[in-house]
Specification:
about 180 residues; alpha/beta; 6-stranded mixed sheet; 7 helices; 6 strands; about 50% helix
């Protein structure tokens, strides 16, 4: 699975990252990359963080790799949103999740067959994984242990089956 993150969107949606960004843009970016790298070690997904480089960016797109996280700075005249949309179209048919609260970017990812998740929701999921790892180490508890058994209602089957696209999105988000 490939998770593509709108870097500045996530920074500006997060209270802690936004606070760091006020001191320095670089501090906010570095902390985001540190957190994403930690999450990548826990979940082992391909992670790409895309930042705007269009104001002061070079004529070419800059690509870096730090702690297993791919980092892309858009080229001059191009926004991170455009890069993310292009990446989603290029990976049509593969499992991608786009992290952005920008509706246009999210819609573009969905049209390309991917799944979109808001920045605050993704940050919350990253925090939960970090907490689990801190509490349990490599021995995470079984997920079903905390779920009480359902009471029988006498009804059989689902009231309404979700569409194929909704079921695929649910499966992909479950892998986060």
């Amino acid at each position: 699975m490939h998770i593509i993150i709108d870097g500045y969107n996530l920074i500006r949606q997060s209270a802690s990252l936004k606070r760091l960004e006020r001191f320095s843009l670089e501090r906010g970016r570095n902390e985001l990359i540190r957190r994403v790298a930690g999450y990548r070690k826990l979940r082992d997904h391909k992670m790409t963080v895309v930042f705007d480089g269009w104001m002061t960016g070079s004529a070419e797109e800059e690509r870096l790799r730090e702690d297993g996280v791919h980092i892309i700075y858009s080229r001059g005249g191009e926004t991170a949103d455009e890069v993310i949309k292009r990446m989603a179209r290029a990976e049509r048919g593969s499992e991608i999740i786009v992290v952005s609260s920008d509706r246009e970017v999210a819609d573009s990812a969905i049209r390309a067959g991917g799944v979109a998740i808001s920045s605050p929701e993704f940050e919350e999921r990253m925090g939960k994984e970090e907490t689990k790892m801190t509490l349990y180490g490599n021995e995470t508890p079984e997920e079903d242990d905390d779920i009480p058994p359902r009471a029988e209602t006498g009804k059989k089957g689902l009231a309404r089956r979700k569409s194929k696209r909704e079921r695929q999105a649910q499966r992909r988000l479950g892998k986060l």
